[in-house]
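pasting for ref
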Amino acid sequence: MSAYNYGSTAASAVGGYNNGTTAAWGNTPPATTKAQTFVELTFTCENLRDMDVLSKSDPQIVLYQKNHEQTWKELGRTEKVSNALNPAFEQPIPIIFKFEKRQDLRIRVFDIDDSGQSIGMADFLGELEIPLGQIIASRVLRKPLTHPRFKDCGSVTISATEVNGLHELACLKFEGVGLDKKDFLGKSDPYYELARQNSDGSFTTVYRSETLPSTLNPKWKQHEINVKRLCLNPTENPGAPILFSCYDHDDDGSHDFIGYFVLTLTQLRDRNADHHTYELINPKMLKKKHYENSGIIKIVECRVEKTYSFLDYIMGGLQLNCTIAIDFTGSNGDPQTPRSLHYISAADGNHYQQAWLSIGQIIQDYDSYVFTSLYQLL
């Protein structure tokens, strides 16, 4: 995957594209307490240093958080973007935001030359230290990167999205017809991106498709995405624009813009959405005399389905029953001796007792009978 400068193409036409970003916890984040909220951080970088001789840098972001011991612990990584000095990372990094605590983050950017290369051997491009609360308060924040040896290292833009309560999943499949030919000796190698609009009017990439080689009539794979990643407020503002941008992939990172169109969550929720077609428009081509479009995009499959979290099932009446089986194998020793795993102590209990107490005390809250079955394996 690579990133590019959009110039005056799709983003400019819609209102300013902020080169921006599926998460570690899947389609639905874990339940949270009132004091904490799950968020996803997405990143873009601008004007990174070029550390490669025959190509551009291949940047990847690694996110760290300072723990209670005042040391930095890695939280996650984005994907590597090849040959890009202005990368838009698709992969977000999830984090728990705790309002009552200061959470210091360190964002480090590396140039990864080989897929198996360790961070310690990669070229360091720059870093930023910032409190998570500052990012949350801004929603979209741009800051310069620093480096101990270089003065100008570019900048990083961070977007924060709350992901509690993502209860709708969009299943989408797109096909193209008659796309513009961008390669001199071939056709095009098309792929597309979906970008949501942020609260400040900028856009953040939330999905990037696979690249299909040498075709003007691509049939991309179906994919699933959380509705709230497509639209920040799907309940109150389902009409917010979702930007579909199509590109011709080039190995050197200078991808050719084919065209764009704008759709909304309201349109995707339409029961007839899988019959909709859209024209790809390249704003630079509009002045040409006989220009109509740069191809047609068909939505061949579209379903917006409700998904359920573990908490939904529990609140809906799901019961969890605990069953424990203990293997009294002779290899564990005489249960009358303290060295045996089966030794019964009046003080702390053996390892088996400690295990079932730890598990049972949690599961019993989800069992109306508060009953545990215990079996002995002979």
